[in-house]
Specification:
Low-confidence stretches: none
Shape: globular
Helix content: 55-70%
Structural class: alpha+beta
Number of helices: 5
Strand content: 5-15%
Largest sheet: 3 strands, antiparallel
């Protein structure tokens, strides 16, 4: 991978993490897979908002979709789990004085 491609991938990841709503989605998916409607209901988002944020997270490689029959569920990727941990540690460090 060229340096430019690598930096573009890093940029996608950080854009994926740059929204509190997307961080809430990652947090919700930490323990279980959820459908889009389950995510929207759980987080009190409308379906369009949840879909838009999930698309951004998926393009960043932080979540993945799995289709089983007619149901599509979303779950964290290995990268998504790691970045969620980093985001939490960053928050914890920023709260220390």
């Amino acid at each position: 991978m060229t340096k430019i491609k690598s930096l573009q991938k890093t940029e996608l990841i950080f854009k994926g993490l740059s929204s509190s709503k997307r961080l809430l989605i990652l947090d919700a998916l930490e323990k279980t897979s959820l459908s889009l409607s389950e995510l929207a209901e759980f987080l009190h988002f409308n379906l369009k908002t949840a879909s838009s944020h999930c698309q951004r997270l998926e393009s960043a490689g932080l979540i993945k979709k799995k289709k089983k029959g007619r149901k599509v569920s979303h779950s964290l990727t290995y990268l998504g789990r790691g970045m969620l941990t980093i985001a939490r540690r960053t928050r914890d460090l920023s709260e220390k004085k």
